[in-house]
Sequence to fold (122 residues):
Amino acid sequence: QVQLVESGGGLVQPGGSLRLSCAASGRTFTNYNMAWFRQAPGKEREFVAVIRWNGVITSYADSVKGRFTISRENAKNTVYLQMNSLKPEDTAVYYCAAAVRYKTVVNEYDYWGQGTQVTVSS
Fold:
C-alpha cells in the first residue's frame, strides 16, 4: 500500500500562486509515477500533470501548460505542484495519485490522497 497526504491548498486571488505538496509513505516511492488530478463541483475528475519516477519526464493538461509545474524530491518521498497565474476555473479539489505506469487516465492510478481544496476567487 501507498499512503498519500496532500497539503498546501487554500484561497488565492486570480493571478496568484500556490504550491501543493503530496507526501508519500509505504512502498518504495521511486517505484511509482506520480500525478495530480483535480475535480470541480459537478464535474468529472481530470488529469492535471504527471511526472515519471525519476523526475525526468513530465506531461501536462493543455489547460495548465505554462502555468503549473510538477516536480518531485525522491529523497523526501514528496511530489509538488507549483501553480502560478491561477484562474477562477482552476478552483477544484486537487488529488495526488500514484501509478506503476506513466499514464494520464484516472482509472490507471492505484493510490489516491484525500484531496486538498484550491479556491481562486477575488
User: Anything to note?
Assistant: The two ends are 40 Å apart (CA to CA).
